[in-house]
Specification:
Blueprint (H helix, E strand, L loop, with lengths): L4 E2 L2 H8 L4 E2 L8 E7 L4 E8 L4 E8 L2 E8 L2 E9 L2 E10 L2 E10 L3 E8 L1
Parallel strand pairs: 1-7
Antiparallel strand pairs: 2-3, 3-4, 4-5, 5-6, 7-8, 8-9, 9-10
Length: 118
Amino acid sequence: MPNLVVAADQDWLACLGVPPDTEEVSGDEYVREVRVPVSEAEEFQLTWDVTDDSVRVRHHRDGRIVTDLFREMATLLTVVRTGSAAEVIIEYGSNHWSGRARIQVLPAVLIKDTLLRS
């Protein structure tokens, strides 16, 4: 049974200016994707699979992937806007450990990922 809670499509559109769509590569209806142009040379790509509770973040620069962050056992995927900044928040974990990735997408990509044992 999937445990990943994902923000509504209208929240993605309101915060990042683009709605989620079916992932381009797989075409799998359960794998969703958001692609956000950050600048002429940069793109932020986020994909998630609600059947596997997994999330992948890719930051592209000049056509190359400069960051590839993959998290399984995700429990929350949401987006927030604070002033001019738009952020994606991913929470993940299991027994005895939990993690949180806070990723500023706009106006520039900044990634903070924390993993803690309990």
